[in-house]
């Protein structure tokens, strides 16, 4: 019988996919959100984690910025 | 967009919304056209208008197109220059754009202007470093662009603004803004949207390949 699972498909580039997989691996078992890794640029995750992924990426991006004190 | 085009954009949205609020759009449009024939700065009695037109006047006063004045027995409205300019066609270039900005390939920006408005506009997407009596020096940085993108400004808007306000000295250069600057602005914009999320369903354990193909054809 066919199983249907509702979720979110994420389409991104290879480094971002690796970043998300890494983040998933760091979480305890009950909070893991990746349902399936489709290929190096597509992932299938639980629907409620979209905001968390976006904020984690924004935080990662902000670590690499430097603001000159005016 | 020059002032007139912006004004018309707002008015179009207002007319579009008026139907939902129960205001007849034909009345609205005819009143707007009437308004554009009034002389600027002359006070007109509100009692000459119908009830619907009074509602319209109140909305236009909020937008800044007319000024309301309360007398002892009567109230007046005074059309401003914006209102009388409504009937001027959009292609009127009486407000000539002043050209003042130079962008260099090292992401530095120089604006030969003493206007505070220009300084504030540039501050939206660039880091203004020095402000001299006739020159504004700034740099387009990743952080300043991120702030602009978070405020909803698109890279295309920034690039077209820089191109339209280019100093006559660089205006002959093709392209006006250096390509590495435009490319980098677009790259930084797409950097904010690296991940795309699409709600989807996942189907697994198909009994055989034929069932899977049939499902695909059905979709």
TrEMBL record, chain A:
User: Is Zinc-finger there in the keyword field?
Assistant: no
> SUPFAM superfamilies, from UniProt?
TFB5-like (SSF142897)
The alphabetized UniProt keywords are: DNA damage, DNA repair, Nucleus, Transcription, Transcription regulation
SMART domains on file: Tbf5 (SM01395)
Question: Which Pfam families does the protein's record reference?
Answer: Tfb5 (PF06331)
One GO-annotated biological process of the protein: nucleotide-excision repair, preincision complex assembly
Q: What parts of the sequence cross the membrane?
A: none
GO CC annotation, single: transcription factor TFIIH core complex
Q: Which residues form the signal peptide?
A: none
> Where, per UniProt, does this protein localize?
Nucleus
Return the similarity comment: Belongs to the TFB5 family.
Question: What's its job?
Answer: In NER, TFIIH acts by opening DNA around the lesion to allow the excision of the damaged oligonucleotide and its replacement by a new DNA fragment. In transcription, TFIIH has an essential role in transcription initiation. When the pre-initiation complex (PIC) has been established, TFIIH is required for promoter opening and promoter escape.
List the PANTHER family hit by this protein, alphabetically: GENERAL TRANSCRIPTION FACTOR IIH SUBUNIT 5
- Relate the assembly described in the record: Component of the 7-subunit TFIIH core complex.
Q: What is this protein called?
A: General transcription and DNA repair factor IIH subunit TFB5
TrEMBL record, chain B:
Quick check: keyword Kinase in the entry? no
Domain Transcription factor Tfb2 C-terminal as annotated: residue spans: 183-219
- GO terms classed as biological process: nucleotide-excision repair
**Name by which UniProt lists this protein:** RNA polymerase II transcription factor B subunit 2
User: Which is a Gene Ontology cellular component entry for this protein?
Assistant: transcription factor TFIIH core complex
One annotated GO molecular function: ATPase activator activity
Keywords associated with the record: DNA damage, DNA repair, Nucleus, Transcription, Transcription regulation
Q: Where is this protein found?
A: Nucleus
Q: What does this protein do?
A: Component of the general transcription and DNA repair factor IIH (TFIIH) core complex which is involved in general and transcription-coupled nucleotide excision repair (NER) of damaged DNA.
- To which protein family does this belong? Belongs to the TFB2 family.
């Amino acid at each position: 019988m066919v199983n249907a699972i509702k979720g979110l498909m994420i389409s991104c580039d290879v480094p971002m996919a690796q970043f998300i997989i890494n983040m998933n691996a760091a979480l305890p078992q009950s909070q893991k959100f990746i349902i399936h890794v489709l290929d190096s640029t597509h992932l299938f995750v639980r629907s409620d984690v979209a905001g968390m992924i976006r904020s984690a990426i924004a935080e990662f991006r902000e670590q690499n910025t430097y603001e000159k004190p005016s | 967009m020059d002032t007139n085009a912006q004004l018309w954009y707002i008015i179009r949205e207002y007319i579009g919304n008026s139907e939902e609020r129960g205001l007849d759009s034909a009345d609205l449009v005819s009143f707007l056209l009437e308004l554009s024939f009034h002389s600027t700065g002359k006070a007109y009695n509100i009692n000459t208008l119908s009830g619907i037109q009074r509602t319209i006047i109140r909305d236009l006063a909020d937008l800044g197109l007319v000024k309301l004045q309360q007398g002892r027995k009567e109230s007046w409205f005074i059309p401003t220059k914006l209102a009388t300019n409504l009937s001027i066609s959009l292609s009127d270039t009486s407000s000539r754009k002043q050209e003042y900005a130079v962008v260099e390939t090292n992401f530095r920006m120089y604006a030969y202007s003493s206007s505070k408005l220009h300084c504030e506009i540039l501050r939206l997407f660039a880091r203004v470093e020095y402000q001299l009596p006739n020159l504004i020096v700034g740099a387009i940085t990743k952080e300043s662009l991120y702030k602009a993108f978070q405020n909803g400004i698109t890279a295309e808007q920034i690039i077209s603004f820089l191109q339209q306000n280019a100093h006559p000295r660089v205006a002959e250069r093709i392209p006006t803004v250096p390509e590495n600057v435009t490319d980098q602005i677009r790259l930084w914009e797409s950097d904010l949207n690296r991940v795309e999320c699409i709600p989807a369903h996942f189907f697994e354990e198909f009994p055989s390949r034929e069932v899977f193909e049939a499902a695909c054809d059905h979709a």
